[in-house]
């Protein structure tokens, strides 16, 4: 019936939704891993932004030298911020796309390309790989999200 909410069991049985849930989980875990990598670089480079984080390295003036920026930490942080700017839209648009009834093969193509491009982007940021590798991987993932948004709007055009 029109106007009824989908039951959870209907979503779990929907192969496209299960594919979305799988790939969304992968990119969310990757994004969470970036937090751990940032913490690792902060600790190994002894570069902190909060005074309380330097307590194990001394007190007073001796600890203040650890309140600093480090190029490696900043590189990881920029990669993490880029994840936030790109994965969050993917999660919302991807969900709407998954619920819009696309073919499974097309949906899998979208999800796999997005996830692959974001993983390549992370390696390109962390290693770092020469440009245009990072830029291309960003553009590929961004284009996938735009493609899904277009298909959602085309399917359910209530503008």
Automatic annotation (TrEMBL):
It is found in: Endoplasmic reticulum membrane; Mitochondrion outer membrane. Keywords: Acetylation, Endoplasmic reticulum, Membrane, Mitochondrion, Mitochondrion outer membrane, Transferase, Transmembrane, Transmembrane helix. Its main location: endoplasmic reticulum. It is a multi-pass membrane protein. The chain crosses the membrane at residues 20-41, 84-101. Its EC number is 2.5.1.18. GO terms for cellular component: endoplasmic reticulum membrane; mitochondrial outer membrane. Belongs to the MAPEG family. Homotrimer; The trimer binds only one molecule of glutathione. This is Microsomal glutathione S-transferase 1. The lineage of its organism: Eukaryota, Metazoa, Chordata, Craniata, Vertebrata.
């Amino acid at each position: 019936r029109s106007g009824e909410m989908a039951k959870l069991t209907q979503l779990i049985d929907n192969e496209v939704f299960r594919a979305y849930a799988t790939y969304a989980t992968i990119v969310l875990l990757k994004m969470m891993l970036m937090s751990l990598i940032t913490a690792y670089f902060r600790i190994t480079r002894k570069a902190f932004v909060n005074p309380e984080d330097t307590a194990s390295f001394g007190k007073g003036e001796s600890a203040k030298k650890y309140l600093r920026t480090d190029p490696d930490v900043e590189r990881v942080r920029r990669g993490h911020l880029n994840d936030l700017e790109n994965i969050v839209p993917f999660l919302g648009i991807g969900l709407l796309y998954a619920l819009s009834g696309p073919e499974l093969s097309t949906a899998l193509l979208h999800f796999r390309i997005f996830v692959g491009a974001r993983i390549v982007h992370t390696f390109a940021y962390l290693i770092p790989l020469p440009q245009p590798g990072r830029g291309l991987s960003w553009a590929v993932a961004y284009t996938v999200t735009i493609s899904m948004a277009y298909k959602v709007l085309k399917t359910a055009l209530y503008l």
